[in-house]
Design a protein that fits this description.
Elements: H1 2-16, E1 20-23, H2 26-33, E2 41-45, E3 49-54, H3 58-64, E4 69-73, H4 78-83, E5 94-97, H5 104-113, E6 118-121, H6 135-155, H7 165-178, E7 189-192, E8 213-218, E9 221-222, E10 225-226, E11 229-234, H8 240-259, H9 266-279, E12 291-293, E13 300-304, E14 317-320, E15 323-326, E16 330-333, E17 336-340, E18 345-347
Helix pairs in contact: 6-7, 8-9
Length: about 350
Amino acid sequence: MSKKRIDEIKKNLVKENLDGLIVTHADFVRYLTGFTGSAGVLVITKTSADFVSDFRYKDQASKQVKGAKVSIIQNGDYLGALKESPKLNKNNLCLGYSGSYATVTELDNLKKTFPKAHFVNADNLTYDLGWVKDKDELSMITKACEISDLAFERILNMVTPGVRESELAAELEYQMRMLGSERPAFESIIASGYRSALPHGIASTKKVKKGEFITFDFGATYKGYVSDMTRTIVVGKATSRQNKIYNLVLKAQKAGVRKIKAGVTGKAVDDACRNMITKAGYGKNFGHGTGHGIGFFVHVGPRLSQLSTDKLKVGNVVTVEPGIYISGWGGVRIEDDVIVTKTGGKVLNNSPKNLLEV
């Protein structure tokens, strides 16, 4: 798989008339080569791929890196080592970097190391790389979803008035690790009461109160591949208003899932959710896109939003996550990870979507 991804980039280098691509971001390096260490640089040209790391990763790199030649240096000056490479020690090279992953400092260092080269943002080289998953990738995402489901089931026993959001987040992430997750896919969102109206309400020290919504948005990472699920529950008995808002979001979420199949646009899926919420009078309370692709990274294409021009393909895995957020009162979001097939969408999450009163 690593060789296939690198070969795809080589072809794109030819199409874009670039001499090479320099990859410095650790997760992106891992995606392209399989290397799980935290330090190394990958250089891809039209005819070659070279990975450079230091002595700490000598044995690890030799075992893990696929699709690229491994070079080990004694110190951590990877760019300095690359500077001496005959492939890069030339005038007027046009080299690409990943604008989505390279920091400003990394770009400055690249320009200082190769002052005779011209650097361009080459995100287009890898724009849709990895959007369509193969059988193995789907298997790993499915496993990540299974871990999320089981961790959520376990965490429900801990939900009680007085527990802090941060305590729930810590236990949730612990349970995912115990179930085989490498790390959280992203910083867990645990937002209760009025804070559930915050779409990205990272867990705080707020104590949960009886009668409040709690939104859990979290994900596991299995062999590099992630899950991303959201469930909203009520502590105690739900009010009629809570039931009304929750069931509206659930109805919209299910409509979005039903809309998914190969050939459908991301905007059409967003419309299926958004139109239902807007018709009910809550359009202004749904201020984000309906979903996004997931895979080795938690946010990839295709996008499901009003601005999306993406068309779904067999093997995409997307989230469907509409929500309603009412400032000062609370909010509801429900999210599943869904595989796109020729005939529809296959939901990977098995956690219940009816309103849980705990």
